[in-house]
Amino acid sequence: MVEQSASRGSGWQPAQYAQFRDERSRPFYDLATLVERHDVAAGPAMRVADLGCGTGELTAWLHEELGARETVAIDSSSVMLAESAPYMRPGMRFEQADIMEEAGRYQGAFDLVFSNAALQWILDHETMLPRVASMVRPGGQFAIQVPNNGAHFSHQVHATIAREEPYASALGGLVREDPVESPEWYATFLHDRLGCTEQRVRLEVYAHPMQSTRGIVEWVKGSVLTWYRERLSAELYARFLAEYERRLVERLGDRSPYFYTFSRILMWGRVPA
Ligand SMILES: C[S@@+](CC[C@H](N)C(=O)[O-])C[C@H]1O[C@@H](n2cnc3c(N)ncnc32)[C@H](O)[C@@H]1O
To answer: Which domains does the chain have, with CATH numbers?
Structure first.
């Protein structure tokens, strides 16, 4: 069964997420290289939206790097936004809101809509992408990065466990679904449905050498497992984690070090003028 609202935001733990700050920042900076900077040189500085900004640490970097006139940083998680004060910059503002709802408010409002590692929390990308693109002014651009690690055991076993008792009853039959499509799907969708004749879609495999196989558990606790942390009691979540680690080690081996590969899709498109 698929739940439509994929992230409620209370399961996020900024410190857990920041454990892998360097590894999680790298795709953000890579995504920023896809943005066409000459848009800035050509006219007044950009109006930017960062969707699913988290604490805003990287949003502040983007805002300064682009010399943006205005940056609206949107996130639904009060826990993440509670850490945002140090990252406030002149011209930046944070909004606690759901991305899909904000899309209706900000039609054609931005020169650049940017989103790193957030839109995988919104199910049904066929519906999500046109809404996100509708926030871009005609001729403006968007840049989106989503994890594409669904083929790795670390991103499969959580759903297997969640379908078993006692978790299935506690979760009402729901599991964290992965809505991410293939790079080819996004390229075709950007062209055929969004009219982006100018586009780039890239698949990048990020290398994350871990001290051991068990390091993966720390990684997923800061991302995909937040969905379960939000929905299970503390006691059941602790059991879920222990079971997750047991099966992970059983399948991948108790190896030290462990070379963790993490695949991501980076896409950029220019909306028709
Ligand atoms: C993995 S973090 C990424 C944070 C930041 N973009 C970065 O690159 O470090 C994902 C963020 O997306 C937010 N998020 C997920 N679904 C959302 C939604 N529907 N509306 C607003 N924010 C959402 C979460 O609250 C979380 O802070």
So the answer is: 14-148+175-208+263-270 (3.40.50.150)
